[in-house]
Write a structure and sequence with these properties.
about 80 residues, alpha+beta, four-stranded antiparallel β-sheet, globular, about 35% strand, 2 helices
C-alpha cells in the first residue's frame, strides 16, 4: 500500500503537524486529507510529489459557529 504524508500548515506558513497515511491510491489519500482540512490548510505529499492542497471551507465554519452560538438553526 502506498505511503503518503499529510502536513498541516500553520498561519505562519510553517508545518505545524505531520501525519503518515497508508492508502490504496491517490484518490483515497485525497479523501482522507480533505477531512483533515476542517480547520487548517493541509498539503498531501507522496515522497517528493505534491498531490494537493486542501483548504478549510469558510462557509462551513461560519455555519457551525452560528449553530453553536444559537444564531442559526440546523436544516430540518
Amino acid at each position: 500500500m502506498p505511503e503518503y504524508r499529510v502536513y498541516a500548515i500553520g498561519e505562519d506558513g510553517n508545518i505545524s503537524l505531520r501525519l503518515d497515511l497508508m492508502c490504496a491510491n491517490d484518490d483515497a489519500a485525497k479523501e482522507r486529507a480533505k477531512v483533515l482540512a476542517d480547520d487548517r490548510v493541509i498539503e498531501l505529499w507522496q515522497f517528493g510529489r505534491k498531490i494537493g492542497t486542501f483548504k478549510p471551507d469558510p462557509l462551513k465554519n461560519e455555519r457551525v459557529a452560528g449553530w453553536l452560538k444559537g444564531e442559526l438553526r440546523p436544516p430540518k
